[in-house]
Structures are given as structure tokens and as C-alpha cells.
Amino acid sequence: MLKVYCLFHLNLMYSSIEEEQRLEVIRKCYYPLLELAVEGIPISIEATGLTLEIINRLDKKWIEKLKELIFVGKVEFVGSGYSQIIGPLMPKRLNEINLEVGNIVYREILGIKPKVALVNEMAYSAGLVDLYKNAGYEAISMEWNNQYLFHRDLDKKLRYYPQLAKGLHDKLPIIWADSIAFQKFQRYAQGEITFKEYWEYLNSNNSLKETRYFPIYASDGEIFNFRPGRYDTENKIEFNEWRRIEKLLLCVKKHFEFIFPSQSLEGIQNNLLTLESVNQPIPVKKQQKYNINRWALTGRDDFFINTKLYRIYKNFSEANSSIEDKKEICFLSSSDFRTHITRKRWDDFIVRLKKFEKKLSASASLVKFDIKDDNRNNSFKIKQSKFEFFIETPFLKMAFNKRRGGALKWLIFKEKSDIPVIGTIPHGYYDDITLGADFFSFHAVIERPGKRKLTNLGNGRFHIRKKGNILILKNLQIDGDVEFIRDYIIFSDQSRIGVKTTIKMPRREVAIIHPFNITFLPEAFDKKSLYYSTNNGGDIETFEIGNESVNHAETLSALISAKYGMGFSEGILIIGDKEKSIRIFARKDIGAVIPYLFFKPIDESFFLRVEFSAQEIDDTFRENSAPYTIKTLFWLS
User: How many Å separate Cα 3 from the centre of its chain?
Assistant: First the structure.
């Protein structure tokens, strides 16, 4: 027996929909959706508090109708927060504010507090589970398909029953969504497949031996009888698609039991599942071009707006902020400004972003140091040879390669290890032709399709400046039409090193830009206990690397440059083993980068590298002819 449910996600912030089209969307999409409920089809509707506010401003009658249908039990409302924020990319407290403000708006407009939450864009992390639980949610809706990619040991039948999502401190029931299922539904509704084809698919999920719960739909409500205009390949509207949906769902109701998503919890199996993995720390819905980089590093300029958002967040004081201020920072965090946003809405957004930035006095962050007098003769030991700089302090010892633009040759943290932990692995180190190259550290790389790489690994000018307890080694290089400036910041009284990089380009063009890379030296680490830790929207999460190959920056196609990534939401990444760890901290208010981990086990050894990205390529990427600058600042300790 099959019990089915459907969930319609409403979003008037939809990136490719202009503001003046919103009333048309309400008329063509949202009213017909409510008619399904009037006809006796149990439907679930999810919307952010922001979308409800927009609808309430444009068409109060629709809100009143929705409230009525909720009250009489014909619609189940599902929450998500005030704005459609990609949780794993945002600081924990900002995610909490988004959920708190969302609950306030749901009470104000609908008079309810939703029990089930849809994970925004189904971009999931374990750290978010605890936040939903603390916000009062009793279950979350999350996609089955992508987490299963890296959990093939799971019984496929688990997809037909709610399970438990394992958070960092707590757990929550998962009500499954299914990308193949909702795409089949969309294809039928828009006339791409026949009723027979759809019915065969739906029946393939049925069982005569057991009761199963199946999500026949869990996606956008704006794509029926309306086309958002994201792609040139969108199907033409040739008939009343909502009428076609109604006929289908009435037929489904005759043959199967129609329920609300929350009612599927009657069949919960309570298996405690880990949805994330070392390879995929953030599962995201649909095909793999939909990954975390889509909202972090592509679009019209995700790197720029996310950097500004972190700058705003750093200056955001809840004690001095009104509810409208909280709504504004959540609005500016909306995922839709980071994908297929229209030019007009982008321009308006940038004005609004800068206005709020100015209000909070969150201008460009300056890098300031606490300079102290240090007259000791041995605080810095500096030596030079034809090919290297050697620098030693009471806490650090390091060498930089002058022939390769000052790339790090090796670095010793004296409190952690007697041998170098990061640096350069030379050509020929591995007996593996796929690793037959020099692997440097602290350098920048720009890769442009069909063109040679640009790096700061060539000859350049060096300048050493010492003031008190601080020594700065500066390097300037020009490769092609790109200027690279890098400062090494070394303290005589601290066990840390800073790397500040500026990349000046004549334009924003299609390219992969990794301004900072680190190679870990295998002799310094215990392979069996290697791990990495970072924040993905909540508290810090730890992933044991084990003996499994990992490649977060794996290319999907010529159009999609990376498939995975970390949220890195507090700017902290820790790489370590049972004995030692290296802490990497990025000033995301200077450059909102995303780290990728590459790990390859090689017999008893391994290759481990972390690449920080400021730009990737996908279908949302847009070029800009204006001069473009990327700045980053990292601290290693």
C-alpha cells in the first residue's frame, strides 16, 4: 500500500521573476494551488515569512483563503524561516535569527507555528539539525537521493519511511523528499511524459506487502502555468497545467491514500542516519550541478556579496537592532540573489546591500596589528640564499622559495612538531604519475577554460619590513594581465603566520580562482587518524578522512567546475590527527572563500591538500567588464 504526500514550495523571491510579475504568479500559480485543497486534495504548502509578507502586501485575500484552509484541515503549512537562506554558508547565529524571525512572522500572518521545516534548497548539514530543533520544529523535510550517493550501505527501502537525522547534539525526524519523483511530476504536468509513463513510475514505488510513504512532489509552485524564465529551454505552456495536475492528483487519491507530510511520521522507523559525509559535507537536492558553490562562488558575483554580508554580520549588534534590522540581514542573505537574479533586481539589491552596510558602519575591514616593541636580537633570524628565504622566530621556522614567487617550502610550528607540517612536495616524491608535479603552498592559481594558468609562482620583487614584533615579507608579481600581491605576516611572540593576498584583474571573467592553497606533508601526520573540522551553519563538525579518496573540487562538466565544498561558515578549518592539528582561520569579511579538500591514499602514505576558492563556474555565472579585485587574509596556527 502506498501513502502519498505532496509539498509545494512557494517563493516570490524567485531569482528570475521580476517584482512586477509577482501578482501574475499569485494569480496563475498560487490560487490554483489552493483550489486543489478546496477539491479535497490534501496539500502541504511551504513559504518563508518574507514570501508571506509579500503576498500579504499584494493580495490579502489569498492569505485569508490559506488561513481558512489551514484552519479546516485541508492544507498543512510547512515552515523554513524568514528568508530562504542557504544555512550551511551562513554563521550559526544568523541562521538562528532567520528561524526566530520566521516563527514571529508565521504567527503574525497565519496565526500558527509550523511543526515541520523544509530545509532551504535542501542544502543540509548536521549542524542545522540542532538549530531547527531549538527553533521548535518537530521534523524536517530533506531529499533522499543525494545523501544516498555516499551512503550506499543503506537499505533502499528506508526512503519509504521517515527516519531520524543525526545532528551534532540532537536529532530530528526526516520526512523524505525525492528529486526524481518531483521531476517526474513536473514532466507530466508540463506534458513531457504521458499519464501512462508517470503512472508506471508511481506504481514502481508501491508494495502489496507493506505500507510505504512516498513524496510525489516537493518542489516549486511557480513553474505551472507560468515560466520563471531561467532557461531558454523551458517548455512552452500549451494547456492548463494546474488542471492536468488536478486530474492526476484526483486519480492518485482514488488508488492510493493521500496524506499530509507530517502524517507520514506514523511510519517512522527511528534509524539514526548521518546524511553528510567526508566527501559530501553538504548534501544538496537535485542533480550535482546544484551544489553549495552555486550560492557561494558563482552568480553575478557571489564572492563580493557574501563578503559584504559577512562584513555586515560582523558589525551587527542584536542589542541595538530592531526586528526590521533582523529582517533586513536575513533578506540580504537570500539565496535568490546568488543565482539567476535578473539585472534589474541585482542592481536594486546592491543599492540596498550598500545602504545597510553604511547604516552599520560596516565599511571595508582594515587589517590592524597590535605592534609591540621587540628589541631582542634573536626575535627574528633571517637568512637568504640564491633560491630561498629562511625565517625563524621563537615559535616558527620556515623557508620560502624565491624562484617560485615566495611559495612556502616548509613550515615548522615548534610547539606542535619538530618537522615541517605544511609546505612543498617536489616532483617525483610520489610513485604515482597522477601526482607527478610540484605541489606548492601559499600560492594562488587562476584557471581559465582554453587558456594557460595564471599564478604567482614566477619571479617577482620581494621586500622585507620589520616593525617591533612584526615582520612582513611582501611579494609582487604580474602574470599576463593579472597582478598578484602577497604579504606574509610573522610575529616574534606568536605561534601563527598570516597570509594576505590581493589579486587584481582587468575584468570578472569565466575562471576558477583559488587564491590560497596548502599542501600537507605526509611525514608529519598519522594517516589513520586524519580528520578535518569546520562549521557548516551550526557548531563545528568533524569528518574522519580514513582511507577514502576525497575530491571536493571534482569537476562535473565544462560548465560546472566543482561538485562539493564546505560551508566554512565561521571561517575556521582544522586539519589534524590524534597528535596535532593545524588551525586555518579566514577573515570572511575580507574574502568569503570556500575550502575544498583533496585527499588520496597512496600505500602507507597520502596526498592531502586544501584549496580555497574565491570563484567557480556554473550556469548562473555572469561576466563583468569592470576591473575586479579579490582580497583574502588567512591565519595559520
Answer: 33
Give the N- to C-terminal CA distance of the chain in Å, as an integer. 58
DSSP code per residue over 253-282 = HHHSEE--GGGGGGG----EE----SS-SS
Which residue do the cell numbers 490560487 mark? 31
In 3D space, the residue among 49, 47, 22, 10 whose CA is nearest the CA of residue 328 turns out to be 49
254-291: b or e for each residue (b if 16 or more CB lie within 10 Å)? eebebbbbbbbbeebeeeebebbbbbbbbbbbbebbbb
Single-letter amino acid, residue 327 = K
Report CA Rg, the chain.
26
pLDDT given for residue 229 in this prediction: 74
How many beta carbons lie within 10 A of that of residue 20, not counting itself? 8
The residues that bridge with 283 in the sheet, in sequence order, are none
Hey, is 57 helix, strand or coil?
helix
pLDDT in tens, 176-235: 999 999 999 999 999 999 999 999 999 999 999 999 999 999 999 999 999 887 666 778
Could you tell me where the DSSP H helices lie in 4-73? 22-25, 31-38, 49-58, 60-71
Q: Phi and psi of 144, rounded to 5°? A: -80, -40
Q: Residue 530: phi, psi to the nearest 5?
A: -65, 145
CA distance 180 to 248: 17
pTM of the entire predicted model: 0.96
Contacts for 401 with CB less than 8 Å, ≥ 6 apart: 387, 388, 407, 408, 409, 424, 440
Distance (Å, rounded) from C-alpha 379 to C-alpha 373?
Answer: 11
3-class state of residue 499 by DSSP: strand
Q: Enumerate residue ranges in the chain where pLDDT < 70.
A: 230-232, 363-370, 372-377
Task: Please tell me the distance from the alpha carbon of residue 459 to that of residue 211, in angstroms, as a whole number.
Answer: 69
Per-residue three-class SS string for 418-483: CCCCEECECCCCCCCHHHCCCECCCCCEEECCCCCCEECCCCCEEEEEEECCEEEEEEEEEECCEE
Burial class (CB in 10 A: 0-12, 13-18, 19+), 77: buried
DSSP letter for 374, please.
-
In single-letter form, the type of residue at position 106 comes to Y
